[in-house]
Amino acid sequence: MSIINGIGFLYLLPKQNLLIFSLYISIGWILLSVYSKFYEVYRYTRPVNILSLILRQLILFCLFVFAFSGLYHELNIYPRPIVKYTLLCFFIIGILKFTVYYLLQKYRVSFGGNYRSTVIFGYNKKTLALENFFNKNPEYGYLHKRTFNFRKKADSLTECFDYILKEGIDEIYCSISELTNAQIADIVDFSDNNLKILKFIPDSKEIYSKKLRYEYYDYIPILTLRNIPLEDSVNMIIKRTFDILFSSIVIVFILSWLTPIIAILIKLESRGPVFFKQSRNGFNYKEFDCYKFRSMTPNKGANLHQATRGDQRVTKVGKFIRKTSIDELPQFFNVLFGDMSVVGPRPHMVSHTNMYAKKIDKFMVRHFVKPGITGLAQVSGFRGEVETDKDIIGRVKYDIFYIENWSLLLDIKIITQTFVNAIKGEEKAY
């Protein structure tokens, strides 16, 4: 963005027309980048594919600048300067893109950083080829630990799982032809429940009717079972930008004047701090301090026991702010600091997370993204106290759907529904 704007200002346009040109090409660049997948460069992406992305973006951007010159023909921007401008931009961008790409590779080889440890399930020509790729190409950043043979050796899945947990393996690669359907199901469950990336080396067997992502490591085809939109760099930037803007607006225009009022009401009714801090599990299972307005009298069980219907610990002020969800507003500071998102799976107390991780299948999948102040499960009737296993199972189901189908429009829809529910009041808001 800096390159295309800077060179445009210095070379293409007179100074008085900078603002409109900057807005036009900046918005255009973002739209073209999303369409052409210009930033989808991974550790296993080949240089020829990067060059292809650059050339595709070059052609599209050149046409876009031509469209600008036609729209604002009074600026007298001629074709030859446009071509020179785009070529110069992409010459610099190409150099920077390949520099970062090769510096990362050099960093992995020389310093052993930015690595992902891997294991392979199955022993055949395809898995040997993948193992060979990992071992002979350290610049891609894969540290292969072990290939499990389910034919000659008596490698059981339990032993494999123990090894993965002991060695801190990041990614599991499976040959479908070497595994039974029951084994595949066990591996999928293990990966979900322990936050491991699972990928498949495909063959003629059917896996599941999911949105599979097809990728190439050199010339070896790889399938990713769960496609998470928020792993895409563009989507991450969009969501983080939205979080920062939205949380800043709430903090400046609502919390700035509401906090003193709530603080006075809380202090008048009971002794204790205005804010309540609680450890919860967030992205990648990391613990963070989650902030709320204190709605209960200070008690030792606050970090262990969830609020129930008619809970005697809840104060009169606390009952009101819990009913209207005002008690959750300080979490916008968590969003601004990067621990949470405005929308995402609701974080649980550490003690509850540990319990549900062992008890509820795929509960850990929720930690593939940042937790949220509100979420799809909350606006779908699974808010508040977990009274039965059905409640937490339903919550996990909606959270996984959100993770696999994220979009900015879905976030806006959830925020709108949350606001409507807060005004109407909810049955389980106690």
From TrEMBL:
Keywords annotated in UniProt: Membrane, Transferase, Transmembrane, Transmembrane helix
Subcellular location: Membrane
Residue ranges occupied by any Bacterial sugar transferase domain in the UniProt entry: 239-423
GO molecular function per UniProt: undecaprenyl-phosphate glucose phosphotransferase activity
EC number of the protein: 2.7.8.31
Lyase listed as a keyword: no
Pfam families, sorted: Bac_transf
Bilayer topology: Multi-pass membrane protein
Keyword Transferase: yes
TM region positions: 18-38, 50-73, 85-104, 244-266
Domain of life: Bacteria
Record NCBIfam families: EPS_sugtrans (TIGR03025), WcaJ_sugtrans (TIGR03023)
PANTHER family: COLANIC BIOSYNTHESIS UDP-GLUCOSE LIPID CARRIER TRANSFERASE (PTHR30576), UNDECAPRENYL-PHOSPHATE N-ACETYLGALACTOSAMINYL 1-PHOSPHATE TRANSFERASE-RELATED (PTHR30576:SF0)
Similarity comment text for this entry: Belongs to the bacterial sugar transferase family.
Protein name as catalogued: Undecaprenyl-phosphate glucose phosphotransferase
Provenance organism: Winogradskyella poriferorum
